[in-house]
Amino acid sequence: MAVKKPAPKKTTTASKPKPTAKKKGNRSFGEKVKWFFIKLMLWFFGLSIGSVIFFKYIPVPFTPLMLIRAIENKLGGKEVYFDHDWEPIDKISMNLQKAVIASEDGTFLSHNGFDFKALQKAYKSNERGRRIRGGSTISQQTAKNVFLWQGKSYFRKGLEAYFTVLIEIIWGKERIMEVYLNSIEMGDGVYGAYAATEHWYRRDASSLTPMQAAGIAAILPNPRKFKATGSSSYINRRKERIVREMRAVGKINYDGK
């Protein structure tokens, strides 16, 4: 009796398994690093832009430099002296506003945050071995004073440029000047126009004469070394030059009209 052979099984092409999506927990180390930096940058942009918007309307109560100076004095065994009061710009003498423009940033009202000619001039001067000078505008100094620390690293300068662009766009010139005159160091432990005029001249910030305003502006390169009153011959010469240049500033119009 013949035995029937079993019929051969039909071969079918098996369908390939669909690729499963990677689970969040199975991300590679490189992907985790990438997402970390993306989140970090989003947080940075959010916080930085938010803080600039916040200080457009709210007085700046404290700056990193104020904290640094207090720590330096404490560690050096000196008295920790701190004098700072916010003064609206309409109560700050126009003479002082003209004086800082004349001494620190002659193109403040027309530039967009950076004076590239001044930067180039400063670079050439430093390259020749002359006394180191800066080319920072009032906008750059304000960005540094309010949001950053002192230093000359490329990283800090990059952040300074970033914050300078932000305050130029969000604040505008008048607010930049107001914050600058309320936060800048104008003596050892003396910050802002209100404290400086009281410290140096025993008067309010709205009543400065051109020469008194020039006296404060003249010491800004090193306010802990120089004095606005009882000044050295060097500072007295700076005062006279600043007063002359204040006339060239003319009428200050922050809206550019």
Automatic annotation (TrEMBL):
Pathway participation: Cell wall biogenesis; peptidoglycan biosynthesis
Free-text function comment from the UniProt entry: Peptidoglycan polymerase that catalyzes glycan chain elongation from lipid-linked precursors.
Gene: mtgA
Phylogenetic classification of the source organism: Bacteria, Pseudomonadati, Bacteroidota, Flavobacteriia, Flavobacteriales
Molecular function terms from GO: pentosyltransferase activity; peptidoglycan glycosyltransferase activity
Gene Ontology CC terms: peptidoglycan-based cell wall; plasma membrane
Sorted UniProt keywords: Cell inner membrane, Cell membrane, Cell shape, Cell wall biogenesis/degradation, Glycosyltransferase, Membrane, Peptidoglycan synthesis, Transferase, Transmembrane, Transmembrane helix
Protein name (Swiss-Prot/TrEMBL): Biosynthetic peptidoglycan transglycosylase
Residues annotated as transmembrane: 36-58
Biological process terms in GO annotation: cell wall organization; peptidoglycan biosynthetic process; regulation of cell shape
The keyword Protein transport appears for this protein: no
